[in-house]
Design a protein that fits this description.
alpha/beta, Rossmann fold, GMP Synthetase, Chain A, domain 3, five-stranded parallel beta sheet, 30 strands, globular, binds 5'-O-[(S)-butoxy(hydroxy)phosphoryl]adenosine
C-alpha cells in the first residue's frame, strides 16, 4: 500500500452550541493548557492526571518504565480498581446500576447495594480458594451479577476474562484453555428475542474434555433453568453468604493484570489482549469525563455487551470509577417491539446514549420516524463506536434522535487501546458526519506511508499509527510475547504502535477512518478475522478450500462472503450453504456466519499456490478486477466465479 485513494466529500459541519460549552467538564481552555503541558513534559502531565483521577493506596514515582514495547505505567504505585469504582462512591448515596431486563423488569442498585453485593461475592470467591493472579472466565449476559463478578475479581486481584455470551462452546473452550481458567462464572440461561439461551449447557460442552484445571463452575440462577448439577458446579445462591461480609480490596501493583479480553486478529486463534490496572483505569476515567462530559446527575446508557471492550470501559470501569449512574439492558434491541430503545430512554431519562452504527442503521430502517413518538428530551450527548458511521445514519441520529441539540461523539479506539483515542470533545470540536475528528490530549496519532513517513496533507490515506505509549495501552498478548511485537510493532521497526486501520486527514485536520489494512473484517461493529472463519469452514468434512472476504452491507457495514471449493460435488447447494452457516456458528458464534456463500470448482490461485483474495474481494464487491490475472494458475476459474457471484 502506498497512498490509498480517498474521495469522500462531506461538507456539513456543526459547531458546539452554548449549552455544550457552558458547564462542560473539559473546555477549550483546558485543552490548550493540557496540550501545552503534554508538549513540555509528557510524563509529568500523565502523572498529574493519574494522581488527580485515581485513588491510590500507594502513590508512584515511575510514570513509565519497562523495555519498549513492553511498557509499564505507574508501576511502583498500588491501587484496587474495584475500590476506585465502588468503595469511594458509597457516601454519595446514589444509584449505580439501573437494570432493565428483556421482559421489562426494572431493578436499581445503589452504590451501597453494589458495595455489599461485591463484598459478599468476593467472600464467596475467596472461600472457593481463588487467589490473586488466578484467571476467571465470565460467560454471562449484561446483568448486575456479571458486573458484580467483574468487580469482585478486581477486588481480589483475580484476572477476569469476559467471553461474549453469544460465542459458541468451541470458541469459549479455546479461551478457557488459552488462559487456563480456574473458575467459570455463568448463568443457567437467559432470554434473547424471547428465546431461552442455555449458557450452562454451552459451558458444560466447552469443558467436557481437557479442562481438568477448571475447579469450579459458578452458576447464577438467572432463569430457573438448571436441571441438574455437575460435580464442579456451585450455585451462586449457595456460596453467597447470607450475612454481610467485608473483604479488604487487594492492593495491586498498577501494572498487574486487571483482565484479558480476546479479540480476533488477521491470523490464527484469537488474541488474549491484556490490560493492567492503573493505566487502563486512567484513560477510562478521563475519556468518560472529557468525551462524554459525564457528570454526577447523568444516566449513561452504553448499549454494548460486557463481552466487548466497550462494555468494559464505558459500561463498567469508566463510568463507575467516575461515580456515575449506568443503565444496562439485557435484551435484544428490537424485542418485543422496535421502539424498545426509545422507550427505555424515555422511561429512564437517559442523558448519555452510546451505541454502534449498525444498531442505528437497523433502527432507522425499521422506523425512521419512531423516535419522534417518544420524549427523548433527557438526551444531551450521543455517541457511536465500532465502525465508520455513514453520513446518512449520522444525520438521522443527530436530527431525529437528538433533535439537532445533542453533539455526536464518534469515538475511534480498539480493544487494544483500552479507551477512546480519537474523538470529539463536545464543547470544543466542530462535528462533521463521518469523522471521529481529532486525537485526544496526550494521544500521539499519525498517518504514515509505507516507509513510515508522516502524511500530513489532506486526503492521503495511509496507516494509522500511535507514536508514543499511552496509559491504557495493552500490556501484551496473553502467553505470546512474540505475537504482540509482531502484530503491533514490527511493521515500522518498533517505532510505532500499528493500529491495523488506514485513515486520512481532511482540510481541517480531522481524521477519517478508511478501513482495515489487514485481513480483519468488521461486521456490525464486531471484529472478525477472515482466517478464523476460513479455518472453521475448511474443518467441515465436505470443504476443500475456503476464502473469506467482505463486501459493503447496508445495515452491518460489512458482511462476509465465503468462496468455497468442495471435496466432492454436492447436489443441494443451498442446503449445504445453510449447513456451513450452522457449522461456523457452532465453531465461532452466529456473528461470524457468512451472509453469502459461493461454490466453485476451485479458487483462484497464484502459481505459488496462494489464494488471490484481492481478486475475490473485487468480485464480492462488484468491482473491476484490478489484479494481474495472468499470474493465475487457473485463469479460467474467473469466468466461472463471475457467473456465480
Ligand atoms: C476496530 C476495533 C472500540 C470498541 C469497539 C470495537 C473499528 C472502532 C471506530 C470508529 C471507524 C472504528 C476500527 C478499529 N472502529 N471505532 N469510531 N470509526 N472505525 O473494538 O473489536 O477492538 O475493533 O473497530 O477498525 O480498529 P474492536
Amino acid at each position: 500500500m502506498s497512498i490509498i485513494e480517498s474521495n469522500l466529500d462531506e461538507k456539513r459541519s456543526f459547531s458546539p452550541r452554548e449549552d455544550h460549552t457552558k458547564d462542560a467538564n473539559f473546555t477549550k481552555k483546558d485543552l490548550l493548557r493540557l496540550t501545552k503541558q503534554f508538549k513540555n513534559n509528557r510524563n509529568k502531565t500523565w502523572s498529574d492526571l493519574a494522581k488527580s483521577n485515581i485513588l491510590w493506596d500507594k502513590s508512584f514515582n515511575d510514570v513509565i518504565s519497562g523495555k519498549a514495547p513492553f511498557y509499564k505505567w505507574f508501576s511502583d504505585g498500588k491501587l484496587n480498581v474495584s475500590k476506585n469504582c465502588v468503595d469511594r462512591h458509597i457516601s454519595k448515596n446514589k444509584s449505580a446500576i439501573i437494570h432493565i431486563s428483556e421482559n421489562n423488569k426494572r431493578k436499581v442498585l445503589s452504590y451501597s447495594d453494589l458495595y455489599i453485593y461485591i463484598n459478599k461475592f468476593s467472600y464467596a470467591l475467596r472461600k472457593l480458594g481463588l487467589t490473586s493472579g488466578d484467571r476467571v472466565i465470565i460467560y454471562m449476559p449484561t446483568i448486575p451479577e456479571s458486573i458484580v463478578a467483574m468487580l469482585s475479581c478486581a477486588r481480589l486481584g483475580l484476572i477476569h476474562s469476559v467471553v461474549f455470551a453469544g460465542f459458541s462452546s468451541i470458541a469459549l473452550r479455546d479461551r478457557i484453555i488459552d488462559c487456563k481458567a480456574k473458575a467459570i462464572i455463568t448463568v443457567d440461561a437467559y432470554m434473547r428475542s424471547g428465546k431461552i439461551i442455555n449458557s450452562k449447557e454451552i459451558v458444560d460442552d466447552a469443558i467436557k474434555v481437557d479442562c481438568e484445571f477448571v475447579d469450579n463452575v459458578i452458576v447464577y440462577e438467572n432463569h430457573d433453568a438448571l436441571s441438574s448439577k455437575k460435580t464442579k458446579d456451585v450455585l451462586w445462591s449457595e456460596i453467597l453468604p447470607r450475612e454481610e461480609k467485608y473483604i479488604d480490596p487487594v492492593s495491586m501493583s498498577s501494572d498487574e493484570l486487571l483482565f484479558i479480553l480476546y479479540t480476533s486478529g488477521s491470523t490464527g486463534k484469537p488474541k488474549g489482549i491484556m490490560h493492567t490496572s492503573g493505566g487502563y483505569l486512567l484513560n477510562c476515567i478521563i475519556t468518560n469525563k472529557w468525551v462524554f462530559d459525564l457528570k454526577d446527575q447523568d444516566i449513561f446508557w452504553c448499549t454494548a455487551d460486557i463481552g466487548w471492550i466497550t462494555g468494559h470501559s464505558y459500561v463498567v470501569y469508566g463510568p463507575l470509577a467516575c461515580g456515575a449512574t449506568i443503565l444496562i439492558y439485557d435484551g435484544a434491541p428490537l424485542y418485543p417491539h422496535s421502539n424498545r430503545f426509545w422507550e427505555i430512554i424515555q422511561e429512564n431519562n437517559v442523558s448519555i446514549f452510546y451505541t454502534a452504527p449498525t444498531a442505528l442503521r437497523t433502527l432507522m430502517k425499521v422506523g425512521e420516524n419512531d423516535p419522534s413518538n417518544y420524549n427523548l428530551e433527557s438526551l444531551r450527548i450521543l455517541g457511536t463506536v465500532g465502525e465508520p458511521i455513514n453520513p446518512k445514519a449520522w444525520m438521522w441520529y443527530f436530527e431525529t434522535v437528538g433533535k439537532s441539540l445533542c453533539p455526536i461523539v464518534d469515538t475511534w479506539w480498539q480493544t487494544e487501546t483500552g479507551a477512546n483515542m480519537i474523538a470529539p470533545i463536545p464543547s470544543i470540536n466542530s462535528l462533521i458526519p463521518g469523522t471521529c475528528t481529532k486525537p485526544l490530549p496526550g494521544i500521539d496519532v499519525a498517518i504514515v506511508d509505507i516507509n513510515g513517513e508522516e502524511l500530513r496533507d489532506p486526503n492521503q490515506g495511509g496507516d494509522l499509527v500511535i507514536r508514543q505509549p499511552w496509559p491504557s495501552m495493552l500490556a501484551g498478548i496473553w502467553g505470546d510475547k512474540d505475537r504482540y511485537v509482531e502484530t503491533y510493532w514490527s511493521k515500522y521497526s518498533s517505532k510505532y504502535y500499528v493500529t491495523g486501520d488506514t485513515a486520512r486527514y481532511d482540510e481541517d485536520g480531522n481524521i477519517w477512518i478508511m478501513g482495515r489494512s489487514d485481513d480483519v473484517v468488521n461486521v456490525s461493529g464486531h471484529r472478525l478475522g477472515t482466517m478464523e472463519i476460513e479455518s472453521a469452514l475448511v474443518s467441515h468434512r465436505l470443504v476443500a478450500e475456503a476464502a473469506v472476504v467482505s463486501y459493503k452491507h447496508e445495515i452491518k457495514g460489512e458482511a462476509i462472503q465465503a468462496f468455497i471449493s468442495l471435496k466432492q460435488s454436492s447436489k443441494n447447494k443451498s442446503e449445504l450453504a445453510d449447513d456451513l452457516r450452522q457449522w461456523v456458528s457452532l465453531k465461532i458464534g452466529s456473528i461470524a456466519k457468512p451472509e453469502r456463500i459461493s461454490f466453485s470448482d476451485s479458487l483462484p490461485k497464484t502459481r505459488s499456490g496462494k489464494i488471490m483474495r484481492r481478486l475475490l474481494r473485487n468480485l464480492a464487491r462488484g468491482e473491476d478486477i484490478t489484479s494481474d490475472t495472468s499470474t493465475l494458475e487457473n485463469e479460467s476459474i474467473i469466468e466461472q466465479l463471475k457467473k456465480i457471484v
